[in-house]
Amino acid sequence: MEVAEDDVPQQENQENPCGYASLYPENYILISRDIPAFLRALVIVVLHFKSYLSDHLGCEIFNLLTLKQYKLLSTNLCKVKEQFVLGLPRTGKTIVALKIIERKRNIFQCSAEEILYICENQPLKKFVGNESCRAVTHVAFLNGNFPEVKHVVVYEAQNFRPEENWHQCALELVKKKSGIFWVFLDVFQFTHPNACGLKFSELYSQEWLTKVVHNAKQIYNVMFNLMEEILQERNTDMPYEVLEELFKQAECAHSLSGDCIIKTNMGTSEMAQYVIRQCNSYMQQGYPVKDIAILCNTQHAAHVFSQILEPELKRQIRKYRVRLVLGPADSVLENVIVLDSI
After folding, report:
1. pTM, whole model, 2 decimals?
2. Torsion from C-alpha of 84, 88, 93, 95, nearest 10 degrees
3. Which secondary structure element, helix H or strand E, spans residue 23, and what is its range?
4. H helices, E strands: number in the chain
5. Rounded distance, CA 199 to CA 296, Å?
6. Alpha helices in 157-267 (DSSP H)
7. SS3 content of the chain, % helix, strand, coil (to 5)
């Protein structure tokens, strides 16, 4: 609508009592300077997604893009051929990666076989694998041949190894077809003490995700303290100047409190009893079995703990008539309690 120089909306003719000005509150009337912010907010809402945190929470905030996520998704894919995204834990990297795959399919009219998603492990591959792309582990990528691929998305690249030359292999694959190459990294969540083969000062174009949206406040606080410890120890080849800048920008995007309960000095048997009680408690509150994960330090510890839990689980099934089934992280999409190593 036309506005005066002082941004005061022109009022409807007073003879028209049914005009919009009399039907809507004053803040519903947009002026010219409101339009960009309104359109940006509209796009963020329209591009909402199914929450991978838990739809059972009923929290709309988990289904909306942050402003930085929106800016990444609105990037002109035709101009940015190679994009590096550095994100803190639980800042929505998986969501952005999957949305980028959708955009590539829509913009370039690609088939699923023409977009390759490379990740670190089998559970993530199964979680992401769908009709939108071809998902493989990085080991399968290095040992395979993908002549039909035009575009590549690499996820959790911080855990790849420099001697594998993965970056050059993926880059050459994309360059042959003039495709798009996106790399996602979380430099605070690495599984080995060596660098991943990337020179962070030379990564262009580079974007950061620092607003934590998929952790409750209490969990975020624990994670924040762990990141601070990582910075203080400095016992890896990671670029600590980059980690420090990311850490400075870290923030929690909401005030949902959540719970973080820490138990210490528990014996293995006592620990097993506690875990079983907690699982039963969650299900009595209405949480589905597949919302629960039990993580141990190593694969061996997970195997031993599983053997301790199994007899107790069978007893609980008889007592409470509940179905408590354990499964590895590979079974993350099934109706089981995940029991695996970190």
Report:
1. 0.75
2. -150
3. helix 20-23
4. 11, 11
5. 33
6. 166-176, 217-233, 240-248
7. 45, 15, 40
263 neighbors 273 (Cβ within 8 angstroms): no
Torsion of CA 85, 99, 64, 289, to 10 degrees: -100
Give tens-digit pLDDT for 133-166. Answer: 999 998 999 999 999 999 999 999 998 888 888 9
Q: What is the pLDDT of residue 310?
A: 84
Q: How far apart are CA 63 and CA 161, in angstroms?
A: 34
Give the long-range contacts of residues 238-247, CB within 8 A, separation 24 or more: 238/158, 238/187, 238/190, 238/195, 239/187, 239/200, 239/201, 242/86, 242/187, 242/200, 243/187, 243/188, 246/86, 246/88, 246/187, 246/188, 246/208, 246/210
Enter the DSSP assignment of 3.
B
Residue 54: the pLDDT is 45
DSSP 102-130: HHHHHHHT--GGGEEEEESSHHHHHHH-S
Domain ranges of the chain: 60-252, 268-341
- Please say whether the beta carbons of 266 and 225 come within 8 A: no
Structure token digits, residue 141: 């990528």
User: What is the per-residue pLDDT for 3?
Assistant: 47
User: Which residues of the chain have a pLDDT value below 70?
Assistant: 1-24, 44, 47-64, 316-323
CATH classification code of 60-252: 3.40.50.300
Confidence (pLDDT) at 322: 64
Nearest-angstrom CA–CA distance, 96 and 111: 19
